[in-house]
Specification:
The protein is mainly beta and 204 residues long. It is built from 3 helices and 13 strands; from the N terminus they run E-E-H-E-E-E-E-E-E-E-H-E-E-E-E-H. It starts with 20 loop residues before the first strand and ends with a helix.
């Protein structure tokens, strides 16, 4: 006796269609100055090109799309801004997310360490031994003065609250670390003897 409702027979469920797959995210780098990350409020305009399937012509069309990214205080390298389903529009595929990845431009005066800024002052040995005064222009245009009676290559002066805004609490800031690069002069033998005598006398 045959069995009703066999595979493919009457009453069989239609095969399920697989859901459309989503294309892999597409990443683009965008460069931002340290000043803009310090003050925030500016927009970064990014232009991308994507493909769109034109059913009428049976061809892919290329179109340009502009995206505005509002820069926020304290953003760090690697911060990602995602525009969902803004990628290529292909038949049977969910468009990819477009992801912009922040890259901080190198700065002529400062390096960034997390929420802190680092400024390295180059000073001659004479000032390192007898007194240093350094003038620093901040990212927001102010002038800071740092004075130390003497410094060594390991000296670090901390200026609290003069670093980068905290990403989650932009009203608060990290610190500014002032380091010192001491330039040693080239000395003649007689100058070395004189310095040696002075240093020995200072220990006496």
């Amino acid at each position: 006796m045959g069995m009703g409702g066999g595979f493919g027979g009457p009453g069989a469920s239609p095969p399920r269609k697989s859901p459309p797959r989503k294309a892999e995210p597409v990443e683009y780098n965008f460069n931002v100055t340290l000043e803009d990350l310090h003050t925030g409020g500016k927009n970064k305009k990014m232009r991308i090109t994507k493909k769109i399937w034109d059913a009428a012509s049976g061809k892919f069309l290329h179109t340009t799309v502009d995206k505005d990214i509002p820069i926020k205080k304290g953003w760090k390298n690697g911060t990602k801004i995602t525009f969902e389903r803004e990628g290529d529009e292909l038949p049977g595929v969910i468009p990819a997310d477009i992801v912009f990845v922040l890259n901080t431009k190198p700065h002529p005066r400062f390096e960034r360490e997390g929420d802190d800024l680092v400024y390295t002052a180059t000073v001659p040995l004479e000032q390192a031994l007898t007194g240093v005064e350094v003038t620093i222009q901040t990212l927001d245009g102010r002038t800071l003065k740092v004075s130390e009676p003497h410094v060594t290559p390991g000296t670090v002066k901390i200026l609290r609250g003069e670093g980068m805004p905290l990403q989650k609490s932009p009203d608060r800031k990290g610190n500014l670390k002032v380091k010192f690069n001491i330039v040693f002069p080239t000395l003649t033998d007689s100058q070395k003897r004189e310095i040696r005598a002075v240093l020995k006398g200072g220990r006496g």
